Amino acid sequence: MVNFKRWLKHMFMPPWAWRRAFPQATLDAIETAIGASETTHGGEIRFAIENSLPGILAWRGMSGRERAIEMFSNLRVWDTEHNSGVLIYLLLADHDIEIVADRGIAAQVDPAAWEAVAQTMEAAFRQGDFERGALEGIQQISVLLAAHFPPSGHNPDELANRPVILGR
Length: 168
Description:
This protein has 168 residues and is an alpha/beta fold. 49% of the residues lie in helices and 14% in strands. It is built from eight helices and four strands, in the order αααβααββαααβ. Helix 3 runs parallel beside helix 8 and helix 7 (111-126) runs antiparallel to helix 8. It is globular and about 50 Å long.
């Protein structure tokens, strides 16, 4: 069944709305934090921001989790040598944060740990502090990855550190 209120929210979300929450300086800070983080563990972090779902996907009722899994594939987060990619996906229209970990990490990190990271980020976002929320989330993910995937001698940067803005 179609949720008309949700569909309307996605259809009429301004395409520039992400810029209010994530101005250039915040995107730069996130990129720097991801780069620094990846020196402390063998994982790869990808940060994706989407204003709203395309109309047909919102109409069909696609959840934020389903979209995050789709973007995990589309952004090739799964395509790391040690299956150690993590996607932080933000769907702004739904105020949704999804964290998707590749199978190498998911087998070792309890799903409740990812939910705790998302809750930390949500708390800061509710206060309007998107930069702090993003950086705290990256820091917490770094701690989880360092515990389960310590850095090895060879640690190439396999995924872009720059946040990606989807559906511009």
